[in-house]
């Protein structure tokens, strides 16, 4: 049985389509990532799957239970760690877990055994009797993840599990997430806007952009699917003629307009720089800067969505700012 089966799931907030007709499957035991910039619809999707938000259209099952008709069974099958931290800082790590264990109605004996197992799994044995207020950000996150596993759920949902952690702590957290996926045998669905996180720990990744899934595959296969390096050309002038010329070149796999220039996908990008500069000169638009990126999940995202994650996040921030009537900074560009 699949851990999660999603079929035509849609969520609208007024005019906004936050999740747009998604269908996909998460296999049992998988570590599955939803990768996308802020505002892509990741949290909305997760909130529907954990039964906190009703879908506008479509259906889904979690551990075989329908998210609309069978909410109680879904809630029993899942653990959740939200983006915002929710721990009692006055209580110790063990006490925080005990509190939740009581909520789930575990017996005292079961409780103690389970808490020991969990503290061991998330590496907080030595700090079990320290107040959580003394924990580092990474330790708090691990405790929350452990808490999500207390009642042995079939599926664990982690919404931005390493957001706000420093890069080193983030890396450490990846190890724990992988470990609990393997050792506790729990299927994991996590959301992230960190490309490296998706690349490093996920078995499969859904690239989410603007409420839709642009692609879904293993990080390696997504990277390979680009089929070349991405050469970014910063250009001084209209790109119309150059675009016509690029379209006529057999060695150009793909190109798109970018803020202040063009992005061209070609094999052996470095060796094509001279050709590209010459084409631009012939088209009467001088190249002011060149950047070559080898395929990775970052360039895969770029090639799938036509923008980098950072650009998408800037768009989202700009639209939020203009919603508030504030000035939009640095959003010029698009097609020239
Ligand atoms: P992500 O988690 O990928 O950052 P979200 O799911 O939070 O994205 O948001 C997706 C879109 O839905 C955004 O445009 C956001 O502003 C909008 N949205 C999310 N929740 C609500 C809500 N409760 N009411 C109105 N709009 C919402
Ligand atoms: Mg979110």
From TrEMBL:
Q: How does it sit in the membrane?
A: Peripheral membrane protein
The identity of this protein, by name, is: ABC transporter ATP-binding protein
Give a Pfam family name.
ABC_tran
- Keywords from the UniProt entry: ATP-binding, Cell membrane, Membrane, Nucleotide-binding, Translocase, Transport
Gene3D superfamilies in the cross-refs: P-loop containing nucleotide triphosphate hydrolases (3.40.50.300)
State the GO CC annotations: plasma membrane
Q: Which species expresses this protein natively?
A: Halolamina salina
Task: Identify the residues that the record assigns to the ABC transporter domain, covering every copy.
Answer: 4-235
Q: Give the signal peptide, or none.
A: none
Q: Which PROSITE patterns match?
A: ABC_TRANSPORTER_1, ABC_TRANSPORTER_2
Q: Where are the transmembrane segments?
A: none
Spell out the molecular function terms from Gene Ontology: ATP binding
Output compositional bias ranges, type Acidic residues.
313-326
What family does the entry list?
Answer: Belongs to the ABC transporter superfamily. Drug exporter-1 (DrugE1) (TC 3.A.1.105) family.
Q: Which NCBIfam families match?
A: drrA (TIGR01188)
| UniProt-listed PANTHER family | LINEARMYCIN RESISTANCE ATP-BINDING PROTEIN LNRL
Q: List locations, semicolon-separated.
A: Cell membrane
Q: Where is region (Disordered) located? A: 311-336
Q: Which domain of life is it from?
A: Archaea
């Amino acid at each position: 049985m699949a851990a999660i089966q999603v079929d035509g799931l849609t969520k609208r907030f007024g005019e906004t389509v936050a999740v747009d007709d998604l269908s996909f499957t998460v296999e049992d035991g998988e570590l599955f990532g939803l990768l996308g910039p802020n505002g892509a619809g990741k949290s909305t999707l997760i909130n529907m799957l954990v039964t906190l938000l009703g879908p506008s259209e479509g259906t889904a099952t979690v551990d075989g239970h329908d998210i609309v008709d069978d909410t109680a069974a879904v809630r029993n099958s899942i653990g959740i760690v939200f983006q915002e931290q929710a721990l009692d800082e006055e209580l110790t790590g063990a006490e925080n877990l005990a509190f939740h264990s009581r909520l789930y109605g575990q017996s005292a004996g079961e409780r103690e055994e389970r808490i020991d197992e969990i503290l061991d799994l998330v590496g907080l044995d030595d700090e079990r009797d320290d107040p959580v207020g003394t924990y580092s950000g990474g330790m708090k996150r691990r405790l929350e993840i452990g808490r999500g596993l207390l009642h042995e759920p079939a599926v664990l949902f982690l919404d931005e599990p390493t957001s706000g952690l420093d890069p080193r702590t983030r890396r450490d957290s990846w190890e724990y997430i992988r470990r609990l996926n393997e050792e506790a045998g729990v299927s994991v669905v996590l959301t992230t806007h960190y490309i490296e996180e998706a690349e490093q720990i996920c078995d499969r990744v859904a690239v989410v952009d603007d409420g839709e899934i642009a692609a879904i595959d293993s990080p390696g296969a997504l990277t390979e699917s680009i089929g070349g390096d991405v050469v970014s050309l910063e250009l001084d002038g209209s790109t119309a003629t150059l675009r016509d010329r690029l379209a006529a070149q057999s060695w150009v796999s793909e190109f798109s307009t970018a803020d202040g220039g063009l992005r061209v996908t070609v094999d052996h990008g470095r060796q094509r720089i001279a050709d590209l500069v010459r084409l631009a000169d012939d088209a009467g638009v001088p190249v002011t800067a060149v950047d070559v990126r080898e395929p990775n999940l970052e360039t895969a995202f770029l090639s799938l969505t036509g923008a980098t994650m950072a650009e998408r996040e800037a768009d989202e921030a700009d639209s939020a700012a203009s919603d508030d009537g504030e000035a939009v900074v640095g959003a010029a560009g698009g097609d020239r």
